[in-house]
Write a structure and sequence with these properties.
By secondary structure, this protein is mainly α. It is built from four helices and two strands; from the N terminus they run ααββαα.
Length: 115
């Protein structure tokens, strides 16, 4: 700290007294934080299916408007997510030929219209 120079090239007035403390570096702060694990495609499909099931149980059908957003609560930490359910159901319909039989069966069971 002794002899610390400020932007003007002059000694900092608090440097000699020891009152200046170094700020923690952002690199050190980020070392302890781990990014959340990435969700797999299967995880994303399962979340959207959960939202579709919730919509079906509440509305009694799966004719979801294209722009509809469904809120669901995930896991033990009660994380709330907003999912674009209308777009997802429309995409599932258009991809029906490539969906696995299990997924087609799951969606059919909750009232999915395929045409």
């Amino acid at each position: 700290m002794d002899g610390e120079i400020n932007r003007a090239g002059l000694p900092h007035p608090l440097a000699a007294s020891g009152e200046i403390q170094e700020a923690p570096s952002p690199e050190n702060e980020n070392e302890n934080k781990k990014p959340p694990p990435r969700r797999t495609q299967a995880d994303k499909w399962a979340m959207n299916y959960q939202a579709a099931k919730q919509f079906f149980e509440r509305e009694g059908h799966l004719r979801v408007p294209r722009k509809h957003i469904e809120r669901i609560v995930l896991g033990e930490d009660q994380e709330e997510r907003e999912l674009r359910l209308g777009a997802w159901t429309s995409n599932q319909r258009s991809r029906a030929a490539t969906l696995s039989p299990e997924r087609v069966e799951q969606l059919s069971a909750i009232g999915m219209r395929w045409s």
